[in-house]
Amino acid sequence: MNKYSSVKNHFIFLVASFLFWLSIFIYMPILSPYVELLGGTYTFIGIVLSSYGLMQFLFRVPIGVVSDFIKRRKPFIILGMLMAMISSLMFALTDSLGWALVSRSFAGIAAATWVAFTVLYSSYFRDEEVHQAMSRISFVVVLAQLIGMSFSGYIVDEWGWRAPFWIGGVLGVIGMILSLFIYEPREIVKQTSIQIKDLLLVMREPLLLKVSLLSILAHSIIFTTMFGFIPVYALQIGLQERDLSMIVFSFMIPHALATLFMGKVLVPILGKWKSLTLAFFCSAVFTLITPIIKEKELLCIVQALNGFSLGLLFPLLLGMSIESIADDKRATAMGTYQAIYAIGMFVGPYLAGMLNSAMGIHAGFYFAGVLGIVATTLILLWNYKERLSVHYSVYKLRKRLKTFRN
């Protein structure tokens, strides 16, 4: 770690990050049923869910570019906390479909500032420790998701549909106050200004674009399933609101554990690309079989397996997105990566909502499962082309050596 990355700095940053995501995700499992309760169709539910990703798509690259240009991350972190607080309180104070859409859009703007969080935290570490930084912060995110989503069903059952939104607002207030004490190293401010041409080169970096495309597919799957229509499906097959906590626990605990398992166990054994292939394929299978499940226990088991599979993906993709990028351009790279994968956050649930309205709720899960197969196929094709390229290069080298000897 760098000399300025004290235990206190880490603690404040990680707690603030935890509160940030907890305020956003504490109402996530009940959002789809709540919008349905307000009178929203599956299509409108998909629009509300997709607005979260659309705002990230629109705002993440500008935030990353401006952050790199002014050499500051902390102001955007404070802004994100403010938007998360406003989003939750707006949900709590209104009860119409229009305001639900606006409120969720504000949450998307808040999430767009996550680019500043990740880049600032990575500056607490040496370059060779970037994956460690991403694993830690990914674990905090998943832990916040786990706690928030696990108790939302219970909170609704005890205190009503508005309670999770009020709690999210209070958490946002606390997080915003704490964010004022986050430490930002002076070294970031002293860096020289980057040129626009450098930013364009970052955005066209081949590995970044490949990883971003895979992340689109991964986020489409998770925002169509657990963060989308799984709660609605669970209620349709006879589960109660309080049962949603069990479904969320089943998904999120393995999801959280997988973020730690990936970097320490799976990647050293299989390598990054084989790990991604395995994780995407398993997620595709578990998503495809979800619509045939009618029992709570079996649904919990399948969600646990899918949660673990998806948990393997996100920290690895996150680390790969910036591992080859220079420090002074990482916010731009991260902003590009997060903006591109935000396409999955809004296109995935939006298309799933339309398919569910036209053909029933099963259609959205089949759609998400096919996306997992597409991701698996892409990785296999890229690896095949890379092997062909290597073999061709070796062949040309041997031919030149043979010609030289003759």
From TrEMBL:
Keyword annotations from UniProtKB, A to Z: Cell membrane, Membrane, Transmembrane, Transmembrane helix, Transport
Main location: membrane
Membrane topology: Multi-pass membrane protein
Signal peptide: none
MF GO annotations: transmembrane transporter activity
Lineage per the UniProt record: Bacteria, Bacillati, Bacillota, Bacilli, Bacillales
The species this protein was found in: Parageobacillus toebii NBRC 107807
Keyword Transport: yes
Protein name: MFS family arabinose efflux permease
